[in-house]
Amino acid sequence: MRKSKKVIVSCAVTGSIHTPTMSPHLPVTADQIASEAIAAAEAGAAILHLHARNPKDGSPSQEPEHFKLFLPRIKQNCDAVVNITTGGGLGMTLDQRLAAAMWAKPEVASMNMGSLNFNISGAASKITDFKEEWERPYLERTKDFILSNTFTQIERGITELSANGTRFEFECYDIGHLYNLAHFADRGMVKAPFFIQGVFGILGGIAPEVEHLMHMRDTADRLFGDNYYFSCLGAGRHQMPLATVNAIKGGHVRVGLEDSIYIGKGELAKSNADQVAKIVRILKELSLEPATPQEAREMLGLKGADNVGF
After folding, report:
1. CA nearest neighbour of 273 among 52, 19, 34
2. For residue 64, what is the domain's CATH number?
3. pLDDT, tens digit, for every residue of 166-179?
4. Label partner for 151 (CA 20 to 30 A): which of 42, 262, 269, 300?
5. What is the pTM of this model?
6. Which pLDDT does position 291 carry in this prediction?
7. Which domain of life does the protein's organism represent (predicted)?
8. How far apart are CA 265 and CA 286, in angstroms?
9. CA dist., res. 108 & res. 16, Å (int)
10. Residue 248 lies in a domain
11. What is the pLDDT of residues 168-207, one digit of tens each?
12. Which domain holds residue 156?
């Protein structure tokens, strides 16, 4: 893993997993997403990982029109790196998933590095009354759902987005996904330094255990040497503990309401900025310094905010 003196803090602002009933603080409208993103940047996030929502019912959306409502405002009000999802919402086609990033031409886009069972149905059993009709079926259908990211799909996403100068947050939900990334690196389709996001705690992917985190890092060391940066996200209550361990070991961190709606045991986070402020406080207590957006750009070899499409 490439050594760095600074820790890149990413914030995933809304995502497509949590639904409006789960937390009144989950940003849904363009104004809410923009405000939350800007506040997260002010709290210390160098990278903002962004999804959009349909403002009418809070359902996930990859429509460029919805992204157009908040991306320019974010760019005008902070210097954070914008990272657009290509995972989108569960069940979307690849065309739908790529649409926003193809329009926005961001500095970074996420790229899931393999297919997997993606089961979040357990959340539905904990809620009696949902605010919106789409929420329960959206969650329950994942008992019989595969998040599809075939080699053909990955190749298309990499090819089309790279043509715009976009680089990637390679989301790896299991060990095999690192080998998939190595395959595309060996073919010369992606260039170092690689920004790897280890995803721990999704049912169907690798479990949120410290031993698994270290195994994934060791595997990445064998595959990529010092040509990568390793960031870590833990789903739910594992968010802060896994991020802290990864930072101590020289890695980078991701927080945000996409990954966990909590700030502490049984306590809902009132904002993304609260989670960013907490991890920044932990980093500083450990004598670790968060990277600025410009430092993150230099580390990851990004094209700069002046070269995006919004």
Report:
1. 34
2. 3.20.20.70
3. 999 999 999 999 99
4. 300
5. 0.97
6. 98
7. Bacteria
8. 22
9. 18
10. yes
11. 999 999 999 999 999 999 999 999 999 999 999 999 999 9
12. 6-307
Q: Is residue 18 part of a domain?
A: yes
Residues 6, 290: contact at Cβ < 8 Å? yes
Locate 81 and state its tokens.
Answer: 């790196």
**pLDDT over 90 (residue 3):** no
Asked if residue 162 is part of any domain, the answer here is: yes
- Name the domain count of the chain: 1
DSSP reduced 3-state for 146: strand
> Percent of the chain scored above 90 by pLDDT?
98
| Two tokens, residue 206 | 């690798």
Confidence of residue 222 (pLDDT cuts 50, 70, 90): very high
270 located within any domain: yes
Q: What distance in Å separates the CA atoms of residue 239 and residue 248, rounded to the nearest whole number? A: 14
- Owner of token pair 């969650």: 139
Record the tokens describing residue 60, joined without a space: 């996930």
- Give the whole-angstrom CA distance, residue 213 versus residue 200: 8
Residue 292 DSSP one-character state: P
Distances (CA, A) of 81 to 1, 135, 292: 22, 31, 10
**Residues 203-212, mean pLDDT to the nearest whole number:** 98
